[in-house]
Amino acid sequence: MSASPLPHDAPPARFEPLTLARLDALLEVEQRAHSHPWTRGNFTDAMASGYQIQLLMGDEQILGYFVGMLGVDEVHLLNLTVAPAFQRQGWSHVLLDALALWARSQGAQWLWLEVRTSNQRARHVYEANGFRRVGERKRYYPSTTTEREDAVVMSRAL
Fold it and tell me: Do residues 58 and 12 touch, judged by C-beta distance below 8 A?
């Protein structure tokens, strides 16, 4: 269901699971890509919990990654990031397609996620991949102001 074709000069890419050997490189991408990045502890806890963490690699650099948590008949997308140098090239669609494929292989029937209300670009990507708004979580995300930011809850049937 990819909505954006990759450019013809896109690097060859492959998926691999996150390992401790790649964690520092992932944290560098996370810091550059987000105003409120996940911490080393967030990622090591996710690894210890058995969450699906897949890196999208181009040669030896991280193009992007996702973190998915399997539940009963569903997968919750906890983090999807494209490295800033590779944004707007269609890699988010590749990551979402890979997440959906893995989720189906686990017997999931739904994908769920939260996204910042202000993150119009991400919301557009999710909508282009079949996600629909199903609710809102008030004051869900930390913010750079004194107020917390609301989240839009989205889901997609598999």
Answer: yes
What is the C-alpha to C-alpha distance for residues 68 and 71, in angstroms, rounded to an integer? 10
Q: Which of 114, 140, 141, 147 is catalytic?
A: 114
The residue type at 97 = D
Q: Where are the domains of the chain?
A: 13-157
Distances, alpha carbon 12 to alpha carbons 4, 18, 52, 125, in Å = 17, 18, 22, 22
- 141 is annotated as an active-site residue: no
Catalytic residue among 30, 65, 126, 149: 126
Q: Are 108 and 12 in contact (CB under 8 A)?
A: no
Q: What number does CATH give the domain 13-157?
A: 3.40.630.30
pLDDT tens digit sequence for 34-88 = 988 999 999 999 999 999 999 999 988 999 999 999 999 999 999 999 999 999 9
Say what the pTM is. Answer: 0.89
